Amino acid sequence: MEYLEFVKTVESKIKERAGEGYTVRVNQVVKNNEVYLDGLVILKEESKISPNIYLNGYYEQYLKGKTVEEVVLEIWEIYEASFHSEVIKEFDLPLDLDSQKDKIIFRLVHYERNKERLKGIPHLRFLDLAITFHCLVSRGELGVSTLTITNIIKQKWKISLNELMRYAVKNTQQLFPVSIRRMEEVIFDIMQSELISLAGESPEEESDSYACQVHELIQEILEMKRVPEPYGMYVMSNLSGVNGAASLLYEEVLQEFACSIQSNLYILPSSIHEIIIIPYSNALNVQQLKSMVKEVNQTQVPREDILSDRVYIYSYQEHSFQIM
To answer: How is the chain split into domains, by residue range?
Structure first.
């Protein structure tokens, strides 16, 4: 079954399952970097909001052997669970400025890759990026939920871009505190988490011993591969790890970090979720850094998570950014 036929089939079967009193439709949703997804919406007559359940991923599961009936059942279960979700309830929020001003935050996206979408939302240019504004709806185990501030909302609030930025600068750093860690620490945690997860599948009496051996082994590997201090890599994000590249705009934090190591900084936009910081050195080849960023974006980062292919430098003497 081709994708469009799959979408129509799922939509039809959900309509049958829902019966009268429900509206079922498929909306095309534009995500970051002009990624288009098909979101199925199931709306009961008295309801005002419902989650977008994206069908693109379900089609991939269908191609791997999942039946349409299993897809329909899973979608219906997600829809029913949404009624008990605090996230959905909180989306039914008052949209006046007074109730939202302490929840206004910013994010960073690539300007050119989002040019069409940016026409409908207030934004500020920064390097080759755009600063966008959002209202924080909720955050918890299920992730971070936000509502994008559109031109319509901005007009309703009668607020300027500078005022939006002022609120966002204050709130974002407060609500999403920065995290700066050495690259090897981040890699270690990822490896440890995966290997300990595997250890959990072994008999309980052996798992602690196995995890300890894994810990020691990874430490040895990292010590062998540790990069000398002047060329160390750091990962900068926020504590939630979601849209953490916005921490690039925490200028006081970046300035304090650069001053602490007495060095200008190369900034590699790893994704919308984090950036990589490398202390400046004449020994580093900027062209190679650019090639590395581009290759990683093309092979490792989902298209909707790409921030930029460029490399930046932050001068702590001049408090300024520059595209390399």
So the answer is: 3-84, 97-175, 179-323
